[in-house]
Specification:
The complex is a heterodimer of chains A (about 250) and B (about 350). With about 250 residues, chain A is an all-alpha fold. In chain A, about 75% of the residues lie in helices and about 0% in strands. The longest helix of chain A is centred in the N-terminal third of the chain and has 50 residues, at about 5-55. Helix content of chain B is about 60%, strand content about 0%. The chains are: A mainly alpha (about 250), B mainly alpha (about 350). Chain B: InterPro entries: 2pore_dom_K_chnl, 2pore_dom_K_chnl_TASK, K_chnl_dom.
Chain lengths: ~250, ~350
């Protein structure tokens, strides 16, 4: 009777989590889309005036200034050229990726809130959402712990190592499982899907996502329609499942 | 403490036994261990700093020099740049920036793969903040980064755990001395807990932004945003300290910020763990105090939570002077009481 309750709580937690992600993404989209478009438009008008003024000659100082502006915008995640093909930085898949990167504390940085309201909401969202995702992780771990310890028990029954050894073996086994399932496999998939990055780069990206470092220097391509959403969802599962073995190993 | 066969036995185990003896022993053992751990942590960070520095700075310098040459060659050839050429130049520059080349001549030491920059990169990797203002581009550095993080992140978690535990101990001592003075231990503990919470909030989240305002020229909101994003290890990288080439940063500034990150993260992890334990459904709560009475700020009851284990990003529960909390499997798997077990 009591054993049912964690299992009943868990799907509810997952659904609530997904809902929170979606709501957060929508809010960010609403908050950030307009300022990003405005910054982009401003950059484009600056570029146009620059071209009009210095169409003939190019003093180096002015160029550096312009480039500085372009780069500053880039840091904030606004691309300085836009033939309109990328429908704004804060379209739904990107916003979803952004909220996921907050909740998993990865924080890639390719997108960051520009407006003060966006920043305040980001802080609030993280302050409320981080404990919630940790609760989700705890629930996940509770559910998966029996599953994960079964192969370990099988091994222990077979070989009967010393207890300390057994713990070490179990940790090593789980580590290998994590490395294989959560780093190598997605890296292979990514490498296959995206032709322009090497396997090592894909592994590096998967690792930096999984460890929630999230440097953000390599990201899967944007202009592929559904792919970012799928990859994001996969990444969320990755992170949720991937930190699990760490917790178990930690024990 | 051996695990009991059923719930009532474990309940008895949870009663305060001999608080004095484990206390003193724990206190004596905890401090040198902590110092050793901190030294190991620093040594590990130094290792990372050195390796990244050696691996990345030659490559960065080369590519930066190459980019400068290309740029000036372009400008010399096309003294009159037309639209598409300028566009392609900007595109090239942005792409170069995204791939990490130093584009404009002026960067601070934080933006370069030198000592300070490499050290901050190591810190941001090991704490999983991961700003991204500096990121490795040579394959060797990336591989090293992976292995560095594999060892460094657990090490960081252990250190944070220790720090959090020490902070809890400090609060607990205050609570006990207050309780002794006021003859009301529960109220004293509650007061000490909330006092610790508020002072931590002030010290780690509300006051440091003033420093950043002054040093970096950001507004208070931006500084608070940076503080929060850093301490929660999200680390977007849109705001990073020490990146403005037009400002002078004193030497103590960056060291202070590193210390702030360390202690602030430990404190925030404690707070999150508290909130987490409040979020967990109470189930059956016992008024069972832990054997060494080194409990967190909730004085009323030790909630029987099926999961008393801390999350990977959180310090372990502060109930044990040393060693993690062991979750003991009872015959009914739904009711697991977390108790300290020295010899499991």
């Amino acid at each position: 009777m009591g054993a049912l309750r964690p299992w009943a709580r868990f799907p509810l937690l997952v659904v609530g989590h997904l809902l929170a992600l979606g709501i957060g993404a929508a809010v960010f989209q609403a908050l950030e889309g307009p300022p990003a478009l405005r910054l982009q438009a401003k950059l484009r008008t600056e570029l146009a005036t620059f071209q009009a003024e210095y169409g003939a000659c190019l003093p180096p100082g002015a160029l550096e200034e312009l480039l500085g502006t372009a780069l500053a915008a880039q840091v904030r995640g606004v691309s300085s050229w836009g033939d309109g093909s990328e429908a704004g930085n804060w379209d739904l898949p990107s916003a979803l990726l952004f909220t996921a990167s907050i909740l998993t504390t990865t924080g890639y940085g390719c997108m960051a809130p520009l407006s003060a309201g966006g920043k305040a909401f980001c802080v609030l969202y993280a302050a409320l959402g981080l404990p919630a995702s940790l609760a989700l992780l705890a629930a996940l771990r509770r559910c998966l712990l029996p599953l994960l310890s079964r192969p370990g028990a099988w091994v222990a029954a077979y070989w009967r190592p010393a207890p300390a050894r057994a713990a070490l073996l179990r940790a090593a086994g789980l580590g290998l499982l994590v490395a294989g399932a959560f780093v190598l496999l997605p890296a292979l998939v990514l490498w296959g899907v995206q032709g322009d990055c090497s396997l090592l780069e894909a592994i590096y990206f998967c690792f930096s996502s999984l460890s929630t470092i999230g440097l953000g220097d390599l990201l899967p391509g944007h202009g592929r329609g559904l792919h970012p959403v799928l990859y994001h969802l996969g990444q969320l599962a990755l992170l949720g499942g991937g930190t699990l073995p760490w917790a178990v190993v930690w024990e | 403490m051996a695990p009991g066969p059923g719930l009532p036995a474990s309940l008895a185990l949870c009663r305060p036994r001999a608080p004095a003896a484990p206390d003193d022993r724990a206190r004596h053992c905890a401090v040198p261990g902590t110092v050793l751990l901190l030294l190991a942590y620093l040594a590990y960070l130094a290792l990372g700093t050195g390796v990244f520095w050696v691996l990345e700075s030659p490559a960065a310098r080369d590519s930066s020099a190459r980019f400068q040459r290309e740029k000036w060659a372009l400008l010399q050839n096309f003294t009159c740049l037309d639209g598409p050429a300028l566009d392609s130049l900007i595109r090239g520059i942005v792409q170069a920036y995204q791939s990490g080349d130093i584009v404009l001549g002026n960067t601070t030491s934080m933006g370069r793969w030198e000592l300070v920059g490499s050290f901050f990169f190591s810190v941001s990797t090991v704490t999983t903040i991961g700003y991204g203002n500096l990121s490795p581009h040579t394959m060797a550095a990336r591989l090293f980064c992976i292995f560095f993080a594999l060892v460094g992140i657990p090490l960081n978690l252990v250190v944070l755990n220790r720090l959090g535990h020490l902070m809890q101990q400090g609060v607990h001592h205050c609570a006990r001395s207050l309780g002794g003075a006021w003859q009301d231990p529960a109220k004293a503990r509650w007061l000490a807990g909330s006092g610790a919470l508020l002072s931590g909030l002030l010290l780690f989240l509300l006051l440091p932004p003033l420093l950043f305002c002054h040093m970096e020229g950001w507004s208070y909101v931006e500084s608070f945003y940076f503080a929060f994003i850093t301490l929660s290890t999200v680390g977007f990288g849109d705001y990073v300290i020490g990146m403005d080439p037009s400002r002078r940063y004193p030497l103590w500034y960056k060291n202070t910020v590193s210390l702030w990150i360390l202690f602030g993260m430990a404190w925030l992890a404690l707070i999150i763990k508290l909130i987490l334990s409040l979020l967990e459904t109470p189930g059956r709560s016992y008024s069972c105090y832990h054997h060494s009475s080194k409990e967190n700020f909730k004085p009323q009851s030790w909630r029987q939570s099926p999961d008393g284990e801390a999350e990977p990003r959180l310090p372990q529960s502060g109930c044990c002077p040393e060693g993690p909390v062991r979750i003991m499997q009872h015959p009914e798997p739904s009711t697991q009481v977390s108790c300290c077990g020295k010899g499991n």
